[in-house]
């Protein structure tokens, strides 16, 4: 092994990517960590007072479940007003069209009343969008990682409400020496030995990173487990053993 290659090997060894004996052995070990394929920071879609938060820290939820309810009395009142204004504009426009048949109303009045209808329709749609955000619905099934708000709290549009994760769809993130690309390919089998559970789980490489890190000479991999395991959660880690090549 050349001096430069030896230094490279020692550097990888120190950061836990390569075990002693990885060069020339039939088994390779790296560290891997479980991460969620789906995770999100859910933000408020409007500025309003929160009426209720229907989930707790660590709690489970299902797709489409209401997570947060807002006090939208003002928006409901505005929608009621918009409906009334639109109905009035439509009635006026219909009357103008009827009167135009007798020459009582000109084309300008008809155009203006039609414009009023379009204006009030747009205002109604804008308020309906705000009303549709009065309940924050879960985008996927999962668990609450962190809550940033409480009931009766005023929240501004765009501020974070909670962090959520889909813990039923996990993948293994790992970094391996770039030399392994000589034999490592997608679908290559591995075994993940999770420190927290003391159990082993089989899996396969799903994605190989598009670039090699120039400083560490490593490449990022993503792997998927052969079978889901309910005891596994994001953040767990352990050693990943690759089969002989």
From TrEMBL:
<dbReference type="GO" id="GO:0015562">
    <property type="term" value="F:efflux transmembrane transporter activity"/>
</dbReference>
<protein>
    <recommendedName>
        <fullName>CusB-like beta-barrel domain-containing protein</fullName>
    </recommendedName>
</protein>
<dbReference type="Pfam" id="PF25954">
    <property type="entry name" value="Beta-barrel_RND_2"/>
</dbReference>
<dbReference type="GO" id="GO:1990281">
    <property type="term" value="C:efflux pump complex"/>
</dbReference>
<dbReference type="InterPro" id="IPR058792">
    <property type="entry name" value="Beta-barrel_RND_2"/>
</dbReference>
<feature type="domain" description="CusB-like beta-barrel">
    <location>
        <begin position="175"/>
        <end position="244"/>
    </location>
</feature>
């Amino acid at each position: 092994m050349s001096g430069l290659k030896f230094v490279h090997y020692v550097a990888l060894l120190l950061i836990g990517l390569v075990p002693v004996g990885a060069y020339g052995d039939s088994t390779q070990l790296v560290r891997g960590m479980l991460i969620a394929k789906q995770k999100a920071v859910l933000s408020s879609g409007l500025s309003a007072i929160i009426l209720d938060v229907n989930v707790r820290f660590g709690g489970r939820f299902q797709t489409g479940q209401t997570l947060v309810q807002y006090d939208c009395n003002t928006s409901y009142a505005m929608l009621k007003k918009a409906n009334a204004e639109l109905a009035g504009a439509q009635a006026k426009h219909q009357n103008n069209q009827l009167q135009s048949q007798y020459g009582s109303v000109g084309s300008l009045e008809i155009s203006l009343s039609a414009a009023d209808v379009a204006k009030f329709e747009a205002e109604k749609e804008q308020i309906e969008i705000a009303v549709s955000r009065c309940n924050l619905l879960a985008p996927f099934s999962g668990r609450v990682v962190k809550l940033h708000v409480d009931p009766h709290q005023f929240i501004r549009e765009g501020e974070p409400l909670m962090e959520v994760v889909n813990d039923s769809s996990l993948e293994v993130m790992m970094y391996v020496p770039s030399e392994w690309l000589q034999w490592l390919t997608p679908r290559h089998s591995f075994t993940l030995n999770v420190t927290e559970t003391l159990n082993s789980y089989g899996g396969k490489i799903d994605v190989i990173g598009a670039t090699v890190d120039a400083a560490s000479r490593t490449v990022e991999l993503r792997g998927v487990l052969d079978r889901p395991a309910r005891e596994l959660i994001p953040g767990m880690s352990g050693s990943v053993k690759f089969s002989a090549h």
